[in-house]
Amino acid sequence: MQNVWILGAATKSQSEVSAEPVGQGGQAITAVDANASGQPAPARAPSPYYQLIFIGVIFLVMYLILFREPRKKQKQLQQMVKSLKKNDKVRTIGGILGTVVDIKDDEIILKVDESNNTKIRVVASAIGKNLTSEG
Description:
By secondary structure, this protein is of the alpha+beta class. The chain folds into two domains: 1-42, no CATH class; 82-135, SH3 type barrels, CATH 2.30.30. Helices cover 29% and strands 31% of the residues. It contains two helices and eight strands, in the order E-E-E-H-E-E-E-E-E-H. It has helices spanning 48-82, 131-134; strands at residues 4-7, 17-22, 29-31, 89-92, 97-104, 107-113, 118-123, 127-130. Strands 7-6-5-4-8 form a five-stranded antiparallel sheet. Strands 1-2-3 form a three-stranded antiparallel sheet, with no helix packed on it. Strand 5 and strand 6 form a beta hairpin. The longest helix has 35 residues, at 48-82. It is rod-shaped, with a radius of gyration of 40 Å.
């Protein structure tokens, strides 16, 4: 014999639902709310404020990595270029090694070959490293 259940309207409260099987002599089974039956309550969704805080922390880390570190290195490089003086040995960002002969506003003259007295002019921002101060 097949049992078919028909759900009826709630009589006592919205949390209770009555059900009656069809074909069996008037037996009624009442289902009760999940909290009243001893089962644990479903987990609540986290507050949206936690998500905003998490996104804020991610943006802060991205700012520190993408903007602050390059600015810091750029300031160190500018300080190094300002501290250059005559006869300092330097390496350009292109890999040319030379000795500082003269420094003008934004231009530095480097001697790259002693035997031929070859000199080149480079922009101050092209200096990558001061080799004299390391040694």
